[in-house]
Amino acid sequence: MAKPKVFVFAPIRESDEWQQTFEDAGCELVLGNADWHNPHGNNEEEMMEMAKGAVALMGTSIRSSPITTRIMDAAGPDLRIIAKCTIGVDDVDVAGATAKNVMVTHAPTESNWGGVAEGTIAMILTILKKARERDRTMKEGIWRLPELQGLYLGSREQDDYPGMTVGIVGMGRIGSRVAKLLKPWGCPMIGCDPYVPDSHFDELGVERVDYDTLLSRAEIITFHVTLTPETRQMFNAEAIAKTQPGTILINDSRGQVVNGDALCDALESDHIAAAALDVFEDEPVDPDARILKMGDKVLLSPHMVSSNLRGGLHPGLIWATKCVLSALRGEVPEAVFNKDVLPTWEQRYKAKNILPS
């Protein structure tokens, strides 16, 4: 009996623990060239060749070549699962996978999404308190410039200051954790998410509003959405025009949620006062990209806001490994993203174990 082949299209190379787990289970591993440090690796043709005969595909984020139906076709009719080590699955043709009876799983580990929420708070405070600018001028021998005054985020009962209004777009795991972290500050929080019930907003102390209202009322807007046709480019020139002058933008979700040129135009005109970005439309960012020329108006991070010691992607890698092995045993694993596939998937694969050990 041939070993079940698992193609890992974007592995995490800092640890080989997961590789040993697959080998102990009797699997054959094929590793792609892309990894966490290098999101541009193999092209589609190369990935098709490496995927031939695979019963499972697994990996982190990959920008060079999303997992297309051509790659799935190259794997062949026995492909059971595509397991992501990350929360997002925007680099997988999920509809194509569902049509081919392939399960797609993701890894919403708290180490990942919790790290994003903490990073969001760090970005907000860094911008509001001008931490970078104060540090730099001190090291240049400059003491107390008037323009280095910060902004006060939280409410103050003593002088009836309500605090800055924070608008949270997307009230899933990350957006909800951001709201919980902000709650002790007492600042007004508004949020929008059509897929979350009113009770969830009430529990978090967040006022539910529609997107246009959030744009017009929020002084700080932070995005925590998955990338879908609905959210792609949702912060574009038209949306920016609805915001208040001096609005602060935070985007730790997906780069394609924000129109980069429109954001740069708004930063140059000072309509958007500042932006903190961990994600970009094209990654890695081109050295000549406009966003890199914005100075202290932008706080930039190389798509690693979730990356922390004792956290980050490693728990997601272990999660994805377990998902693959479960699927190869004919079991439904945790965190199936395309749940529509389950009836036909179970009919075909339930209790059909192809692991040799």
What does this structure look like?
It is a single chain. The longest helix is centred in the middle third of the chain and has 19 residues. α2 packs parallel to α3. Helices cover 33% and strands 14% of the residues. α1 links the parallel β1 and β2. With 357 residues, it is an alpha/beta fold. The strands form 2 sheets. A 7-stranded parallel beta sheet has the order 8-7-6-9-10-11-12, with helices on both faces. It has 2 domains: 143 residues, Rossmann fold (3-Layer(aba) Sandwich); 191 residues, 3-Layer(aba) Sandwich (Rossmann fold), CATH 3.40.50.
Can you summarize this structure?
This protein has 357 residues and is α/β, with parallel strands linked by helices. It is 33% helix and 14% strand.
- What is the total number of structural domains? 2
Q: What does the radius of gyration come to?
A: 22 Å
Per CATH, the superfamily of the largest domain is NAD(P)-binding Rossmann-like Domain
The ordered H/E elements are: EHEHEHEHEHHEHEHEHEHEHEEHH
N-to-C CA distance:
11 Å
**Low-confidence region ranges:** none
Number of DSSP helical runs? 13
Main beta sheet strand tally, sense and closure: 7 strands, parallel
The CATH topology label of the largest domain is Rossmann fold
Q: Going across the major beta sheet, what is the strand order? A: 8-7-6-9-10-11-12
Q: Number of DSSP strands? A: 12
Strand-pairing-aware structural class: alpha/beta
Helix content: 25-40%
